[in-house]
Amino acid sequence: MSEDEDERYVLRKEKEKSYSDFVDLIDGDEDSEDETSDEDVQEEIRSKSRSSLFHSEVKKQGFVASSSEDGGDDNYLSQTRFDQCPVSPLSLKAIKDVGYEKMTVVQEATLPVILKGKDVMAKAKTGTGKTVAFLLPSIEVVIKSPPAGRDEKRPPILVLVICPTRELASQAAAEANLLLKYHPTIGVQVVMGGTRLAVEQKRMQANPCQILVATPGRLRDHLENTAGFATRLMGVNVLVLDEADHLLDMGFRKDIERIIAAVPKQRQTLLFSATIPEEVRQICHIALKRDHEFINTVPEGSGETHTQVRQMHLVAPLENQFSLLYALLKEHISDDVNYKVLVFCTTAMVTRLVADLLGELNLNVREIHSRKPQSYRTRVSDEFRKSKGLILVTSDVSARGVDYPDVTLVIQMGLPSDREQYIHRLGRTGRKGKEGQGILLLAPWEEFFLNSVNDLPITKAPMPMVDPDTRKKVERALSHVEMKNKEAAYQAWLGYYNSNKTVGRDKYRLVELANEFSQSMGLDNPPAIPKLVLGKMGLKNVPGLRSK
Ligand SMILES: Nc1ncnc2c1ncn2[C@@H]1O[C@H](COP(=O)(O)OP(=O)(O)OP(=O)(O)O)[C@@H](O)[C@H]1O
Fold first, then answer.
1. CA of 540 to the centre of ligand 1 (A)
2. Burial of 74 (0-12, 13-18, 19+ CB in 10 A)
3. Which SUPFAM superfamilies did the record assign (predicted)?
4. What are the residues whose beta carbons fall under 8 Å from the beta carbon of 50, sequence distance 6 or more?
5. Per-residue pLDDT at 482
6. Is-contact 30 170, C-beta < 8 A?
């Protein structure tokens, strides 16, 4: 191990340790990076950072590439070092400990604007350090606020960060804790579904925090059921919506509106995401002030994905897909001993089925989805973060924000819910300039999805060889998967595609396709579905369905 590698190893271990210490409460965190600097350029940027023109200069400059020591692409890093920034020396010390030296492009572009107190909507590619970009200036706000009185019963929450998933909330809180290493008086807490409300209530009472990271549903729960919580939220100075476009989706909109109504109008709001579709820009006034700044660090025409990630699609009938998935994985594993693969599936129950199947095929596999208990999700997420030689089969709970280092391949099976979800799932690889690969596996009738991503560099993948032995092996493995899991997968599959605008339009065709899926699991007859469920799906009396 070279000295450099040695140091990185120690830094990583420190990060892992701080993560493990924290894991009882929350989840999160990983890898670090340090860079050498070019003194001349640094001096020039240092003087720019002192001037009020700093931000506009940064914007004009756009991406500045620097050299890479690990063969990765460093376009995500800027030339500005953290120690050139007007933030607390104690935060800088913590940043140094983590191993960050230069700011990423999005951090460099947003920090000066956020420090001025402006509302910001920022778009930056996946895995380029958005979390630190909003946490670092938020911590400054806490530092500058008058400390709460010792006996204050309901000390104000000054910074409220909302994340769409539990994994992401835990991760953001862990990152905040790293930055707060030398700020012992500033506390972070996380509240999220999957843990007992009463436990969180007690924890908040015992350790009142100034920074709260939350998932939307649980935050609402606290607003409605935790004494004094609403009063504490009236202290919010900074509201952050991470994965903002997703939080402003219909699925979360009501919760977010309720949360916005519970925090003061006079506040700073920060919206971050790798994707900000036009519809979201249209409705961002729900959260942002009229004079907010939109900072887009994705250069025009470069697409929203990373050029160092090879993207491919494979179109094959459902009956071949499990064998193809197995062949793809075997090929990848034999190519790369350090393989680390994410397989995204459409629903939790399909995820379980695919994980069962790959397990029967003796692959080293884990699963994460919403039907697993939170303690299990945290444990598996932690294991995958630290491992190599592992496949994680997952639903969309891992689609956004989750920071697993060194993912070598992302496979997406079936229709992603939309273009944005495709980009975020793919973004689990190619983080921090690393290389990666993405394969989208579609059935012929799902090919229409490619139109929505036709500006992205997705090429046709070569069809992997599936010999008769492999096919038999997969069939045998499928026959060992529990029937109840196949039944649940069938029902979930039907539900997912039923709610898809395109596929769900023709119910007769939908049922035919669902039955193809059922056959692909090795079933002769499609499983029966409770009448009530069929009624809710609007599928009563559609031929080809069996009810019970
Ligand atoms: N200045 C920096 N230098 C090196 N590494 C950094 C820096 N800032 C953040 N990182 C690391 O980069 C990784 C990616 O950061 P982060 O998860 O915040 O990305 P993101 O842009 O939020 O991604 P996503 O869009 O997927 O949510 C993390 O491991 C983080 O610790």
1. 48
2. buried
3. P-loop containing nucleoside triphosphate hydrolases (SSF52540)
4. none
5. 97
6. no
Query: Ligand 1 pocket, 498 CB below 6 A?
Result: no
Q: Is 274 in the pocket of ligand 1 (CB under 6 A)?
A: yes
| pTM over the 0.90 mark | no
Ligand 1: nearest atom to the Cα of 131: 18
Residue found under tokens 């290389």: 435
In a 3-state reduction of DSSP, which class is residue 310? strand
Separation of alpha carbons 431 and 356, rounded Å: 28
What is the Å distance from ligand 1's center to 321 Cα? 34
* Res 150: pLDDT: 63
Q: Which atom of ligand 1 is the closest one to the Cα of 128?
A: 21
Q: For the segment 341-358, what is each residue's pLDDT rounded down to a tens digit?
A: 999 999 999 999 999 999
Cβ(432) to ligand 1 under 6 A?
yes
How far out from the chain centre does Cα 459 lie? 24
Do strands 268-273 and 238-242 pair parallel, antiparallel, or not at all (unpaired)? parallel
Ligand 1 centroid to Cα of residue 432, in Å, is 7
Cα of 401 from ligand 1 centre, angstroms: 9
Domains of the chain: 74-296 (3.40.50.300), 309-481 (3.40.50.300)
Q: How far is CA 97 from the centre of its chain?
A: 25
Q: Would you say the CB of residue 433 lies under 6 angstroms from ligand 1?
A: no
The protein residue whose alpha carbon is closest to atom 6 in ligand 1 is: 129
pLDDT digits (tens, 9 = 90+) for 405-417: 999 999 999 999 9
The reported pLDDT for the residue numbered 25 is: 23
The stretches in the chain having pLDDT less than 50 are: 1-71
Calpha distance 380→383 (Å, rounded): 5
Instruction: Report whether residue 339 contacts ligand 1, using a CB cutoff of 6 Å.
Output: no
**Rounded to the nearest 5°, which phi and psi values hold at 37?**
-120, 155
Q: Is 167 in the pocket of ligand 1 (CB under 6 A)?
A: no
- What is the 131 CA–ligand 1 centroid distance (Å)? 6
Amino acid 194: pLDDT: 84
**Which ipTM score applies to this complex?**
0.99
